[in-house]
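Worked example 4.2. Below are the chains of a multi-component assembly; read each line carefully before continuing.
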Amino acid sequence: MKAEIAAFHALLAASRRILLLSHVSPDGDAIGSQLGLRWLLQAMGHDVVAANQDGVPQLLRSDQILPGWQQVVQAPLSAKHAAGGYDLVIALDCSDLPRLGKVYGPALAHAPLVNIDHHITNLHFGAVNLVDPAASSTAEIVWRVADALGWPINPQAAQCLLTGIVTDTRSFRVGHVTPALLGVAQQLMEAGAALAPISELALERRNVDTICLWGQALAALRLEERIIWTAIPQAMRRGCNGVEQSDSGLANFMVGAEEADVALILTEREDGQVDVGMRAAPGFDVAQVALALGGGGHPRAAGCSLTLPLEQATAQVLDALKHSLAQQRGALAG
Amino acid sequence: MKAEIAAFHALLAASRRILLLSHVSPDGDAIGSQLGLRWLLQAMGHDVVAANQDGVPQLLRSDQILPGWQQVVQAPLSAKHAAGGYDLVIALDCSDLPRLGKVYGPALAHAPLVNIDHHITNLHFGAVNLVDPAASSTAEIVWRVADALGWPINPQAAQCLLTGIVTDTRSFRVGHVTPALLGVAQQLMEAGAALAPISELALERRNVDTICLWGQALAALRLEERIIWTAIPQAMRRGCNGVEQSDSGLANFMVGAEEADVALILTEREDGQVDVGMRAAPGFDVAQVALALGGGGHPRAAGCSLTLPLEQATAQVLDALKHSLAQQRGALAG
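Applying the procedure described above to all two chains together yields the following structure tokens:
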């Protein structure tokens, strides 16, 4: 990555106004890596705009974990923001250009594009690509670049980068948590970042309607051939003030069941489609089934959408999963 | 702590057979610190027996997270084990002697006692007391002692100590997580410990009956004056194959509710008593109410037992909590 870092450094030196972008429906690492880089560049005198099509999610809007979150704009190409022009664009935590949504457009085609990301599916779409699938998070890569270039880490940058690392690893529980990453987290804390509020605010806080839906969904739990599953019809969501089932925590929780190899949640949407979320215990794979049903994902977390009534969707996914798991267990046994 | 470490070192040098003890109903830090120290002492040629009155809990019985767990005996004073005699006793993760239960007795009174612990309530009952309430875990103190004495850290010891640290901090989420602790965790990983299995096996794994009870308990959730609460009658437990409500995860989960300052779980026991578990959001205190009702605990996690029918116990605790919270909010506002 050394040559890429040097190329990035040269682009920065030649730029006057920099636009930082992250993916639609952003998570803690998208905003954390973006704002972290913004604080670092601003401290060195750069003029920087940070933008995200969907803004900062409600649960992440806190200066304790993402100082400066109010500065993320949603329309960087509007007259107000674009008047100053941009001569460098940096995409963060984004595996392909369309994932940036409306904040990227033809008006930016003249500006060199830097691609900073950790997704294994990254398409290397930038003029410079700081991409490392072995990194825990995009925030970790930003830290490594800053460290390689000898940039001072101010407390606000440290906080945003630690929030990116902690949210993407669920506090060092999943993903690529290396000994070196713990060393990075230590240095970020020493630079002024607080660890406790990140778990409290970004990982463990939910509204009571979401907790209500957990209760209803878990009360309807079923276990079949080591598949733990539940279905969430629209009526169930309405019973909890119409809350969205957008909380990956429930699937992560269910796959912790000793008696299960796979967790499955089927959610009936208002437009009649069924969202299918799957998680696999270590050693098992749900990406194959998701792919076969027109979706995608990682071996241990995948999903798809089906245009079927809830009962039929449930039967189809259960069938496919049972078949796939039988094959996987056969391969393990053989 | 320097003088205490030197005194500990002198006692070790003079000892022939060492007994390591931890508290009744042990958790990951009790067994982790105990087995970690056992691996360290054994590697240096000491003859060591590790004992716990209640043995190793089912969910922690894995060589991936606690290598050597099979070596923890439950009756160290039986003829079989005690025949060799003990000339040094080390209590781990234990704030007072009675917490050791039946594994400590008059037969051990002749042996010097070393007390290694991180609880703020520790009574300093040892001849040597390696007690630090600012430590995240007893495992962290064992590591600091080993580091100060220049002991080599073998992979098994590293794994047990990391399990102690990770379980007591819920993977660096709660308690005294300092930058230095992250450095210790990094060194333990570098010495051969694996981090991922600890969360998978000890923090996120539950049996399906426990998950069933979460569902029933959450489906009965109530919210009053920013107290989120649920009551678990015996019939509810029977509906989930009679599973015990001994899972502190549920209370931790509930206190994550944005709309609540306190979470409360009342569990009806078979003997008619009601177990009361309470959690407080940052800035609030439930220890006062627990103490007033004959229980105890920490400001943010406390409990008590009441000899009352479930409905009356619920009314009494809710009343006390509402009163206490109103006072606390008044103090905050003033």
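Take a moment to check your reading of the output against the notes. Residues 2-203 of chain B form a domain with the inorganic pyrophosphatase (n-terminal core) fold (CATH 3.90.1640.10). Residues 144 and 184 of chain B are 9 Å apart (CA to CA).
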